[in-house]
């Protein structure tokens, strides 16, 4: 039999195979993008046109589920923008800060030493760190029942003034006789971290000579109750103003015992 005759015999099969493939494809398109979305949309209370548009990707959402309504607005972790002028200003003496600080003394003390250990000591804290936290309270990046209202009542100049004021105050004196014995595993977390859990050394950012982010707060001489509460807030995600989720990532891997011990370490240890 000649090749031409073979092709002639095979032609009907090729035609029917092509028709079958095209039919299956057409059915899939009609069923997947028309029939199924309309049926699903009817069950979800969505009109046929919207359901089909969602199925083909013209409109957002699923044809089987109503698009959830949300009024949430995307917010940055912080709205602070560091500049050379701002950093230079924060490093200067700001006499007006003493007047602004009068609104702070009830909780943070006349000289930045809080009588209530639930509140942070501001004395000796970095002016940059104080500025960032006040700015975050003002913008809503960090929320507190009292501090939010206070910060929102300050303009940027007053925030700079009060930050520089408390940064110039002397740290609280520690009584070496009350220091507790430090657990070796806590010292390791502070000095070397725990690579097995992806935990960096605390002092890589918070140490006195560390090269961490400029807004990193000083932990030494801070109140233990305040430190523990903030670590737990980072761990649960209740506090979110840490840039790049640095502290949330760290705190989420700490046990409650480690949090309490780390807070005690920084609150009572003289050499850090």
Automatic annotation (TrEMBL):
Transmembrane segments: 15-36
Keyword Cell division: no
One Gene Ontology MF term: electron transfer activity
Ranges for domain Cytochrome c: 92-170, 188-270
Protein name per Swiss-Prot or TrEMBL: C-type cytochrome
Pfam families the UniProt entry points to: Cytochrom_C (PF00034)
Keyword entries, A-Z: Electron transport, Heme, Iron, Membrane, Metal-binding, Transmembrane, Transmembrane helix, Transport
């Amino acid at each position: 039999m000649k090749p031409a005759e073979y092709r002639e015999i095979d032609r009907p099969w090729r035609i029917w195979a092509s028709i079958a493939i095209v039919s299956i494809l057409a059915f899939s398109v009609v069923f997947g993008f028309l029939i199924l979305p309309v049926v699903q949309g009817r069950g979800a209370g969505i009109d046929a046109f919207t359901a089909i548009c969602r199925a083909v990707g013209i409109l957002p959402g699923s044809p089987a589920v109503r698009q959830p309504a949300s009024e949430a607005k995307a917010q940055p972790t912080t709205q602070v923008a560091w500049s050379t002028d701002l950093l230079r200003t924060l490093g200067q003496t700001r006499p007006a800060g003493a007047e602004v600080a009068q609104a702070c003394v009830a909780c943070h003390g006349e000289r930045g030493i809080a009588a209530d250990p639930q509140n942070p000591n501001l004395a000796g804290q970095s002016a940059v760190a104080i500025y960032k936290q006040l700015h975050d309270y003002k913008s809503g990046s960090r929320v507190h029942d009292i501090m939010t209202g206070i910060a929102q009542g300050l303009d940027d100049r007053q925030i700079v003034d009060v930050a520089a004021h408390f940064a110039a105050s002397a740290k609280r004196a520690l009584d070496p006789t009350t220091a507790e014995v430090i657990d070796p595993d806590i010292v390791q977390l502070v000095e070397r971290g725990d690579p097995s859990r992806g935990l960096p050394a605390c002092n890589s950012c918070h140490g006195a000579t560390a090269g961490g982010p400029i807004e990193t707060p000083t932990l030494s001489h801070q109140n233990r109750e305040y430190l523990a509460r903030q670590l737990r807030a980072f761990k649960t995600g209740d506090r979110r103003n840490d840039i790049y989720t640095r502290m949330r990532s760290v705190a989420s891997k700490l046990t409650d015992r480690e949090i309490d011990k780390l807070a005690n370490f920084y609150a009572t240890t003289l050499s850090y």
